Amino acid sequence: METQSRLTCPECGFAETLEMPQDACRWFHECTACGVVLKPRAGDCCVFCSYGTVRCPPIQQGDTCCN
Question: Which residues pair with 30 in a beta bridge?
Answer without folding.
Answer: 37
